[in-house]
Write a structure and sequence with these properties.
Helix content is 46%, strand content 21%. The chain is of the alpha+beta class and 208 residues long. The chain has two domains: 2-90, Enolase-like, domain 1; 101-204, Beta-Lactamase (2-Layer Sandwich). Strands 1-2-3 form a three-stranded antiparallel beta sheet, with helices on both faces. It has a three-stranded antiparallel beta sheet with strand order 4-5-6. A hairpin with a 5-residue loop joins strand 2 (10-16) and strand 3 (22-28). The longest helix is centred in the middle third of the chain and has 22 residues, at 69-90. It starts with a strand and ends with a helix.
Length: 208
C-alpha cells in the first residue's frame, strides 16, 4: 500500500490486494502531515496488514499504540484500510469507483442536476467503459477526450483525461479525471500520469 499527500489535510491511500485488485480512497487527516510521515505510516501498515483478513487486521491494529503522531496516523489510516478490505471481501462483481463527484457538481456547467445524471448514467454503461478501456490501454499513454470527442451524447459537455496502468493477466485498469471542458488540462494530465505511474509500480510489486 502507499500514502501520497494531496494537501495539508488530505492524502490518497492506494491498496493493492493479493489477488491484484487495486483500490484508491481518500483519507482526511486530523492535522497537517508531511509526506515522510505518511510514508512511514504506510510501511508500518503494510507490515501489519499484509495477507491478513479484515478481522485479523482489526485485531493487529488494536495492538498499535495510538499515542503520538505516527501511532495516531497509523490508527486513522488503518481503519480506512480495514473498511476497504471488508468492502472488497463483500464484492461479487466488478464495480466502478469514483471520488470527487461533489467537486464536479460544483462546476457551473453541472448546476442542472439532470445533466449530471445523464453523465453518470453514461459512465455506468459497461459496454462504453469496456470500449474506453480498450482504446486507452491500446495506446498506452495519457489520452484526452474533449466534449464531442466522447462518443455518448451525454458526455458532450465534459472532458476525460485517462491513462492505463497494470499488466495483462495480473491487474489492468484506467485512472482518470472527469470535468468540464474548461478544466485545467495541464494539471489534470500531470496528476493522471503520476497516479498511472504509481499504479504501475504497485502492480509490478504484487508478487515481489
Amino acid at each position: 500500500m502507499d500514502l501520497v499527500t494531496i494537501s495539508e489535510r488530505l492524502a490518497s491511500l492506494i491498496i493493492v490486494f493479493r489477488e491484484g485488485a487495486i483500490r484508491q480512497v481518500l483519507v482526511t487527516l486530523a492535522e497537517p502531515v508531511e509526506q515522510e510521515e505518511l510514508t512511514r505510516a504506510a510501511v508500518v501498515l503494510d507490515g501489519l496488514m499484509a495477507g491478513r483478513t479484515a478481522a485479523d487486521a482489526d485485531r493487529a491494529l488494536a495492538r498499535i499504540d495510538g499515542d503520538g503522531p505516527i501511532g495516531t496516523l497509523v490508527r486513522r489510516v488503518g481503519e480506512r484500510v480495514i473498511a476497504a478490505i471488508r468492502e472488497y471481501d463483500a464484492m461479487v462483481i466488478e464495480e466502478v469507483f469514483s471520488d470527487g463527484l461533489l467537486h464536479v457538481m460544483e462546476a457551473p456547467e453541472f448546476e442542472r442536476s439532470d445533466k449530471l445524471r445523464r453523465v453518470f448514467a453514461a459512465l455506468e454503461n459497461r459496454a462504453y467503459l469496456g470500449q474506453l478501456l480498450d482504446r486507452v490501454a491500446g495506446v498506452g499513454t495519457v489520452q484526452v477526450f474533449i466534449g464531442a470527442e466522447n462518443a455518448p451524447p451525454e458526455m458532450r459537455d465534459v472532458s476525460l483525461v485517462l491513462a492505463p496502468y497494470g499488466e495483462p493477466g495480473r491487474a489492468v485498469g484506467v485512472v482518470g479525471v472527469l470535468g468540464p471542458t474548461r478544466m485545467g488540462y495541464a494539471q489534470a494530465i500531470g496528476t493522471v500520469r503520476f497516479v498511472s505511474t504509481l499504479m504501475n509500480e504497485l502492480v509490478q510489486h504484487i508478487d515481489a
